[in-house]
């Protein structure tokens, strides 16, 4: 039914109980990988989500709570997983404000969750990958890892940092069967984005189509959202043999944003 070439591999996906992370985890499970879902909550529905994913694709799926703002919990997540052939660093938060008014606690949290967590999980995962003789590190960066927007200082700095960390990881593993790459999405239609549309329609007195095209996708030349399924498919490709010599680079899934 599926091309399950990842059977026997374990993928740890941070920030994966919704949105992009869940989309990536779903496509990896479809390809046969066992899955570890993660977020900072520890609800019955989080564990039920993992159980549902496992049953749907016939893989082992678990949910492990960990706060990605805490380095020790980031490392513990990978250790609790037991093995980590595929590491997807996806956890992230956002805050928008001018630099002089940007709250220090928001800066610290964004850098910790969006950037430092990827360092800690990678440090814990690489020894496992080396022992297994194979590995894939996939960092979910952003178009903002390659370009910038005003009022997003912490997010842009963190995502540029993720791209840099990806390159260093690739160089340190270049002679091993381990690759490290960053996926750089533009605007993605997630439940969080979908929920923002009605309020934006009221604020600007626009139709849904006008909000999507002229407000949300103003910098995305395709005028279409990327989907979580497309990002998941990109991650699956990076795990394939066809991508064995793709390392230390970025793959933009942004509808032409960074071509401008």
UniProtKB/TrEMBL annotation:
A Pfam family recorded for this sequence: adh_short
A GO biological process held by the record: monocarboxylic acid metabolic process
Superkingdom of source: Bacteria
UniProt-recorded Gene Ontology molecular function terms: 3-hydroxybutyrate dehydrogenase activity
InterPro entries documented for this protein: 3-OHbutyrate_DH (IPR011294), NAD(P)-bd_dom_sf (IPR036291), Sc_DH/Rdtase_CS (IPR020904), SDR (IPR050259), SDR_fam (IPR002347)
Family affiliation: Belongs to the short-chain dehydrogenases/reductases (SDR) family.
Name used for this protein in its record: 3-hydroxybutyrate dehydrogenase
Annotated organism of origin: Paracoccus zhejiangensis
Lineage: Bacteria, Pseudomonadati, Pseudomonadota, Alphaproteobacteria, Rhodobacterales
């Amino acid at each position: 039914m599926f091309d399950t070439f990842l059977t026997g591999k374990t993928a740890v996906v941070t920030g994966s109980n919704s949105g992009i992370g869940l989309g990536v985890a779903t496509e990896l499970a479809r390809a046969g990988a066992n899955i570890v879902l993660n977020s900072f909550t520890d609800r019955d529905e989080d564990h039920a989500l993992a159980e549902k994913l496992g049953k749907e694709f016939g893989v082992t799926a678990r949910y492990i709570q960990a706060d990605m703002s805490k380095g020790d919990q980031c490392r513990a997540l990978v250790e609790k997983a037991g093995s980590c052939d595929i590491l997807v660093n996806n956890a992230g938060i956002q805050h928008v404000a001018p630099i002089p008014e940007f709250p220090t606690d928001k800066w610290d949290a964004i850098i910790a969750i969006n950037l430092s967590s990827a360092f800690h999980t990678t440090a814990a995962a690489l020894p496992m990958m080396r022992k297994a003789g194979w590995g894939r590190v996939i960092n979910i960066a952003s178009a903002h890892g390659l370009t910038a927007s005003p009022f997003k200082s912490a997010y842009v700095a963190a995502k540029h940092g993720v791209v840099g960390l990806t390159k260093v990881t690739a160089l340190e593993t270049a002679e091993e069967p381990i690759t490290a790459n960053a996926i750089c999405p533009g605007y993605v239609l997630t439940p969080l984005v979908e929920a923002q549309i009605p309020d934006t329609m009221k604020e600007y007195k626009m139709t849904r189509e006008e909000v999507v095209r002229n407000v949300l996708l103003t910098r995305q030349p395709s005028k279409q959202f990327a989907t979580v399924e497309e990002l998941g498919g990109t991650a699956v490709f990076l795990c394939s043999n066809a991508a064995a010599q793709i390392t230390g680079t970025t793959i933009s899934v942004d509808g032409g944003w960074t071509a401008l």
